[in-house]
Design brief:
Chains A, B, C, D: It comes from Amycolatopsis saalfeldensis. Chains A, B, C, D: GO terms for molecular function: DNA-binding transcription factor activity; transcription cis-regulatory region binding. The structure is a homotetramer. Helix content of chain A is about 70%, strand content about 0%. With about 220 residues, chain A is an all-alpha fold. Chain A folds into two domains: about 1-45, Homeodomain-like (Arc Repressor Mutant, subunit A), CATH 1.10.10.60; about 45-205, Orthogonal Bundle (Tetracycline Repressor, domain 2), CATH 1.10.357.10. The longest helix of chain A is centred in the middle third of the chain and has 27 residues, at about 110-135. The interface between A and B is large, with 37 and 37 residues. Chain A binds a DNA duplex (21 and 21 nucleotides) through α3.
Chain lengths: ~220, ~220, ~220, ~220
DNA sequence: CATGAATGAGTGTTCATTCAT
DNA sequence: GATGAATGAACACTCATTCAT
């Protein structure tokens, strides 16, 4: 791992664990095994580092979601894919996603606008899937926008507690959440592992996570 | 509002908006319209202030939950009450609850232990309701603990986006979330406003929130 | 001397001796016998301190010059007064005037504009006196603007070398420079001490300098 | 222009514009279009660079002055030459001369001693000319040393404002200053352009400045 | 009850300089 | 020659906290 990568990794780890404002430049330096001055060869300001992490992470999620839902006309399949992908991303990359979800307030106005725009673009995929499902009569919900937010928060929460060392493997987690989400949308039924295979493949590509939960 | 109350209110507002580490003692002083030195007449350290806010807030939620579920043998009724109460608390007191949910990492080990113990005690009410519902055959979920966490995150998320100025009043919000939760637990069905009345009353008592959503 | 005054005095001394950029905040703190943090009770930024010194010093000179030339219709008398005043100010307040003369480049654009405006206002008094003298036929110079700049630089230079401990007292210095200036303007002749009395009085008032050179 | 020359030119430009302490090594590198590390192939420390600039510049002025006054027994001619040369040097090389005049305080004690010795040697030429003129009865001044300093400051000031794009060409400037100086010394009279020809030639040789003011 | 004054430790960032490549 | 990488020390400035008044 190069020094530049170590800096980024240190930032992800510490921003996730202690928050942006709770992480000092000297903490980053120590974690990256560099002097605090050397940090500045690999980053602009501390905020630049945060923005880069958030934007990259969000864009990756957005691209993965676009890929995983591409060509799926069925709203149920799309939502299932979105839920699975979101949950897997948050379970596999809890630090990155916690930073994205928790540190928006630490951004300056300009940077926040950029990040929020990406987030909105991503959420629009969810909104569209739910809306289409309601229109198609496969989803039933009195307040689609509220439901969307509820489901997103539910899925994002995974980053706050999931451990790959626990009893539930990644694919089981994804299946369970997909079922919860579809039930909440009034479309109950089992989710088969085969339904998730495309998602798992996208996840494996995008985040370098093995199909099996047997690593690290 | 007394000076002491102004200090606490300032802390809740700013800790919620900018985080504990993102809020300086001078910010608090300005918000409370006091000098920074005077702050220390009303608080111990900055961390003491945070701990007080978190502990008080959690204890209030815990007491309210205990009161709202007391005597209800029916797991469905208990869970409905817990969901409604949690959602209402987060919608009515978004700042307090955001502090509780987001700033645990800012606590020292000793303080964190206290706060986490309270939180665990509260979550145990949820765990018990779900477990009882599963045992009674009214809830169906393959991973009760995971489901519990998913629902808690879903409900806590309300504090991040709900606005009383939006189209959905508090009671409607509570009903909707209760329905989402029960559906997710495999127990679909409408939730009547009358089912929530006891909750709304507890909320009104505990958090000084009017029944009607027509205030500021 | 209060702490605030000590800070200002330290800044004048050190900015004059080592330049704005050559003076660290810790140097100021040491000179003012305060911690570097305490400095910030008495100043805004380091640049604010510089601006305050320059603006105050220039305004004082401008006011003194206006007072010393007020009511004098004779261009010769006005120029004599301006020269004497300028020289006395630079001899009596060498640190302040060196800061004003040398640190303009250290200012931000906005601050520089303010300071330069004051300086221009002051130089206009010189320009007017010279122009009037030329028009009246008492001064003879082919390039009045160049001459004005030459004389100003000549007089400002005093701050770079004059010592009250040297053989030449303040009033002798002023007389000598007044003679040099008038000669350069083609209006030779002795300058009597009585001609300078009004100037010396203004100087004594404005800069708290005794008439006699026998202090400190 | 070689890299080494670019470094020196960058230093002259930036030290003049922002001061020694106000100029960072990175500023120099950028101006010289080199990396900051590469700078150190062409210089010792930042201070060495400053010393080299000052010493070279002063020695060149000193040599030029010696050459321009060599063999001239007439104190008036000598002073006229000194003034013209000084003014021309400051008008033609404003950056170099500003560095020499303003950055003496930035030098370490040892380096300052070297530079001041050169400056003293140069000023001695002025002192000698004035003294000789007074002794010969062609100059009249009550305080020769003060007058010398006054005239030197007057002439050095040219570097702070003269622009070759203004209305006054170099030779006109030199003539005007020579007249001002001789008048101040009680020896009025026109200065003919032919009187300055030797000086202009020395200037052209030493500083690569064309006789005509029509360049750049 | 309230605060101006004060500070040691810490903030994010830049400094001039070195050195292996 | 030229530079990316590296750093200890310093930079201007803010931190949470104390205390005499």
């Amino acid at each position: 791992m190069s020094s530049g990568e170590r800096v980024r990794a240190a930032a992800v780890k510490l921003f996730a664990a202690k928050g942006f404002h709770g992480t000092g430049i000297r903490d980053l330096a120590q974690e990256a095994e560099l002097s605090s001055a050397s940090l500045y060869h690999y980053m602009g300001t501390k905020e630049d580092l945060l923005v880069e992490i958030m934007a990259t992470s969000l864009r990756r999620l957005l691209d993965a979601a676009a890929k995983a839902t591409a060509g799926a006309g069925d709203p149920v399949a799309r939502l299932r894919a979105l839920v699975a992908l979101h949950v897997l991303a948050h379970a596999a990359q809890p630090a990155e996603t916690r930073v994205v979800d928790n540190e928006v307030d630490a951004l300056s106005d300009a940077a926040r606008a950029r990040v929020v725009a990406l987030r909105d673009e991503y959420e629009e995929l969810w909104a569209q899937a739910i809306e289409d499902g309601v229109a198609a009569g496969v989803f039933h919900t009195a307040h689609p926008a509220v439901t969307r937010l509820a489901l997103l928060e539910m899925c994002s929460g995974v980053a706050r507690w999931y451990s790959p060392r626990g009893p539930l493997p990644l694919d089981g987690l994804a299946r369970h959440y997909a079922e919860l989400a579809l039930r909440a949308l009034g479309h109950p039924g089992e989710v088969a592992v085969t339904d998730l295979r495309p998602c798992l493949e996208v996840v494996a590509q995008v985040w370098d996570v093995p199909h099996q939960k047997d690593r690290k």
